[in-house]
Each structure stands twice: as structure tokens, then as C-alpha cells.
Design the sequence.
């Protein structure tokens, strides 16, 4: 748990999910039921604990000003489009997406989207 929260900055709350890594600019974290693939170009979450309800995601280290679009897919969540969301000038990306067993959420940076 310390590795997940301190090194990779993966914090799973009841209403929100935060990714704020301490050091790594990209990683693939697949331990137990927690799967997170992270880089400034893409994010993949899933499955994450919870049941189908939308949660707030906050992710740091993204490309400042970039637009990200995504999708939620799988039998365990409400499927559909997620986003678009634009990273702040500090590289913080915030969006809402579902969670649940067999639910995967992806966010991908759009090419030439930086203002």
C-alpha cells in the first residue's frame, strides 16, 4: 500500500481517485485488483474498486493545456465517452468517469491539442 500511495501516488478514495506520482513520469502498476497505466500521453484505469457510480479523477504530470478524450468500457460499468478534459497550465487533468469490476477507463491525449 505504501508503494502504491507514496511512489506512484495512487490514492483511491470513496468519491475520488488521485494519481500524483512522486518521481516516475510513466508507469504500469498492476498489483492485486488495482491496474493503472500512466504517462503524459495516455491513462488506463481498471478495474478499480467500487461499483459503477461516477468518481472524480485528478491526475498530475499531464501535458499542460492538452486535451484528453476517453472511454469507459466493460461489463462492470456504464459504457460510453469520457471527457473531453483539458489539462491545466500546471499539468493537472480532472474528469469524471465510472468505476467497477470489469470496468476500464482510458484517457488519450489528442494530437496537436496543446494550445
Sequence:
Amino acid at each position: 500500500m505504501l508503494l502504491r500511495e507514496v511512489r506512484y501516488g495512487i490514492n483511491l478514495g470513496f468519491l475520488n481517485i488521485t494519481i500524483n506520482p512522486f518521481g516516475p513520469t510513466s508507469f504500469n502498476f498492476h498489483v492485486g485488483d488495482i491496474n493503472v497505466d500512466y504517462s503524459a500521453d495516455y491513462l488506463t484505469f481498471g478495474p478499480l474498486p467500487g461499483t459503477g457510480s461516477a468518481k472524480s479523477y485528478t491526475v498530475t504530470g499531464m501535458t499542460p493545456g492538452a486535451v484528453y478524450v476517453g472511454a469507459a468500457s466493460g461489463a462492470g460499468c456504464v459504457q460510453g465517452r469520457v471527457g473531453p478534459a483539458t489539462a491545466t497550465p500546471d499539468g493537472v487533468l480532472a474528469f469524471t468517469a465510472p468505476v467497477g469490476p470489469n470496468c476500464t477507463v482510458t484517457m488519450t491525449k489528442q494530437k496537436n491539442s496543446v494550445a
Observations:
- The chain has one domain: 2-109.
- The chain is about 5% helix and 45% strand.
